[in-house]
Amino acid sequence: MRSRRRRSWRARGRVLALLAAVMAGTWSCIPGRTTPEPVISSLVVRNRSFFDVNVYVLPSPMGAPARMGTVVGASSESFALRARDLQPGGFLVVLVHAIGSRSSWTSDAVSVGDGVLAILDVSADVFGNCSASSLHTIVTVDSLPPPAGLTATPEAAATVVSRESSVGVVSQPPGPAIAVSRLDRRKTD
Fold it and tell me: Helices then strands (H, E): number in the chain?
């Protein structure tokens, strides 16, 4: 009788230990609350082709691409860029794949950060080859300090942007740096 009780207690102990291990493993898989990762910059994709394209970022030179989203043909879309989307040093590399084609295109690295907006112009031929696409950056007007001796007006900031255009920054007219929205599909006469 005594050996039977010992066996039943041993079996109960094993079941309880197994149950405790399963519960501990389940609770460790529940994600904790974290603060959202801040947005560093934005990527504006202007798809000038008829193909819908998938846009990816390459966070490391040898790593797997991270999908940003799909941009419908002949439209524009904006994506938030976070630190995990950039390569070391704050460089952005983008991969574009036209849906329905076998080819993809990878951009050169561009530096982005606070006040610098990345613009991806997607161009594809009839076969979905996106090699004519380009990735460049612009400095937003709001991020520029006013020039010495001038007031902080959009016209003054546009002057600074135009002066810096010789070093690879695209100049913008006075007013908002860029406005991105879906293309209007209405006909204009």
Answer: 2, 10
Q: What's the CA gap between 120 and 138, in Å, rounded? A: 11
- Residue listed under structure tokens 């007007």: 141
Q: What does the block give as tokens for 155?
A: 């016209």
DSSP, residue by residue, 114-175:
TTEEEEEEE---TT---TT-EEEEEE-GGGSPPPTTS---HHHHHHHHHHHGGGTPPP--SS
Class of domain 39-167: mainly beta
Answer whether 0.85 is exceeded by the pTM.
no
Would you give per-residue pLDDT tens digits along the chain (189 residues)?
556 555 676 777 777 777 777 776 666 566 666 788 899 999 999 999 999 999 999 999 898 999 999 999 999 999 999 999 999 999 999 999 999 999 999 999 999 998 899 999 999 999 999 999 999 999 987 767 766 665 555 554 444 444 443 344 444 444 444 444 333 334 444
CA angle 170, 38, 122 (to 5 degrees): 40
